[in-house]
């Protein structure tokens, strides 16, 4: 623990229960789509297996491939209703933004306690999310001022950074914090996220089990898995992080 100086948080499902909102948004998109095209019905298992943690368009393409469907990729400007991967992804974005406006979002209390503890111990922190909605979600959750570094889907697109399960977005966040990967903790709830942490040779990959399964997270790269970040005693970091390398 004496070598760990930064904590890199995924957003959806780690800091905020937006994963639950996203899950319902994907269901609202794909359940009627599967019915309309006589595909095998969409289930929650599809979210975890094909969508969770990935950039939005990649999630669309992976789910469609699981049903033997191949659509033109299209462009990010495609409006919902067109028959392209991007149009479907933009349709999901409309659904989830409407849900955020109508329902709001509160962070996980245990995650906020853990965030308070690690920053109190001197750790540098960042958010690493595949979502392009990360700034809006952080603002809605009252966490925007807690993170000077946010590497989200917008940053990845602008800087041409590969998304999870590639480690590149996490590596970029560590670079912006000026902390080597080996001295950073990756905190993830998604298969693709713990795979990214493992691939980037980070100091610790901490899995948060929000439904994927602890064994599955360990199998794909998590070193430690907890049900809630509030269960961790982060006081062991006090005085041991945040210093110069």
UniProtKB/TrEMBL annotation:
GO molecular function: beta-phosphoglucomutase activity; hydrolase activity; metal ion binding
Cofactors that this protein relies on: Mg(2+)
Domain of life: Bacteria
Reactions it catalyzes: beta-D-glucose 1-phosphate = beta-D-glucose 6-phosphate
Pfam family, one: Hydrolase
PANTHER family xref list: 6-PHOSPHOGLUCONATE PHOSPHATASE, HEXITOL PHOSPHATASE B
Protein name: Beta-phosphoglucomutase
């Amino acid at each position: 623990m004496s070598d760990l100086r930064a904590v890199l948080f995924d957003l959806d499902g780690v800091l905020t229960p937006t994963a639950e909102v996203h899950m319902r948004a994907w269901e609202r998109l794909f359940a009627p789509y599967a019915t309309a095209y006589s595909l095998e019905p969409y289930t929650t298992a599809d979210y975890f297996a094909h969508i969770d943690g990935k950039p939005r368009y990649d999630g669309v393409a992976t789910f469609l491939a699981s049903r033997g469907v191949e659509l033109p990729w299209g462009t990010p400007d495609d409006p919902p209703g067109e028959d392209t991967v991007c149009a479907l992804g933009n349709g999901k974005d409309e659904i989830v933004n409407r849900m955020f406006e109508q329902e709001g979002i509160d962070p996980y209390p245990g995650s906020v306690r853990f965030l308070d503890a690690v920053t109190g111990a001197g750790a540098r922190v960042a958010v690493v999310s595949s979502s392009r909605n990360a700034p809006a979600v952080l603002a809605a959750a009252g966490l925007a001022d807690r993170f000077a570094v946010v590497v989200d889907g917008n940053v990845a697109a602008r800087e041409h950074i590969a998304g999870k399960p590639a480690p590149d977005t996490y590596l970029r966040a560590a670079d912006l914090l000026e902390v080597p990967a080996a001295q950073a903790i990756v905190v993830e709830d998604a298969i693709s996220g713990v795979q990214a942490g493992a691939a980037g040779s980070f100091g610790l990959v901490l899995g948060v089990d929000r439904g994927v399964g602890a064994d599955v997270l360990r199998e794909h790269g998590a070193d430690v898995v907890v049900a809630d970040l509030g269960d961790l005693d982060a006081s062991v970091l006090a005085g041991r992080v945040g210093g110069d390398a």
